[in-house]
Amino acid sequence: MKNRIIYILLFFIFSLTTYGQRYFVSNQYVYDMFLMNPADAGSERECFILNGYFQKQWFGVDLAPTYQMLTFQAPLKSNVGSGTYLFNDRNGNNKKFGFQQSLSVEVKLRENRRGTTTLAFGLSAYLEQASVDQSAFTGGAGTDPAIDGGVESGMGFNANTGMILRINKFHLGASVTNILPQNNPMYENELEPSLPADIHLHTGYTFKVPDRDLFLEPLVYYRRNSLSNSRMDINVKLTMPTPEPDFTIWGVLAYRRTMDYNFGKDLGMATTAGIIYKGFSIGLEYQHGLTSAQKHLGSSFLMVAGYRFCGSDRARRIPCRNRDIDTMMLDNNTPQRKKGLFRFR
Known about the structure:
Layout: H1 2-16, H2 23-26, E1 47-56, E2 66-75, E3 80-91, E4 94-112, E5 115-133, E6 151-167, E7 170-177, E8 198-205, E9 207-208, E10 215-225, E11 230-241, E12 247-258, E13 265-277, E14 280-289, H3 292-297, E15 300-310, H4 313-317
């Protein structure tokens, strides 16, 4: 009986967290920025980028959240980019399958010996199929007339927009997701919660540690919606080329915090370690939850794998927009003397 009660409670928790919001998608912005801001779609002008994601949470819990996602970015013209993703998500008895297509246009505002300034705009269209399987509901839940023991499904669509200002190695971006109101017939009942638009703000800077083969990109992210649901992330991305020209080490450190309270509250921390070899990339993220529910149910892992189809070896092994920062030494055939993490011989 106790397990049955827990099962029913988890179902309702799952249901409340899956109405329209796709945070499991936009939260992966640190790997594919266009998932949160369509203005970044296809911003890597030298590369076609394919990435796959797999996550399973709360090991040992039946019907625990899990999802798979496939993303693809491509430059279409000198200043136009495309970003596409497909995902399959299961959260309790809820299932979702979605598709999104994003397009971006980048306008050059300045280019001189001091650097470059650009402004990118993006727009995306989203289509989603959602369903809930009630056939396994037992006990008291079966007396609810709204639960008929079948499978309920519906389809909805939405749109996102965003912009990014880039000044040399610095960027500042803003986007809005879920621009349209809820239109999936599954969730149009007046008792269902509304689908608020989310506002995303982010800023970052890329630099190379002097005299070392280490690239760092601090990235700060803030999200808020009309329901006063807010969150702030602080991330640091690391990229370390090695003496082996086909091999690069990369990683991410992240701290996540909800800002819904007076002074905020810890949500969790994450660490990612990965490698790039001849354009193939793989990384494993460990998410350590700091809320009471996460501590009880356990932490989770996310696997990211992909391939970069690039026009140059340097673009494959240093996957950042500002890879030209002091990287000439990596393509120079003459021996280099450096104090770096790795020494070229």
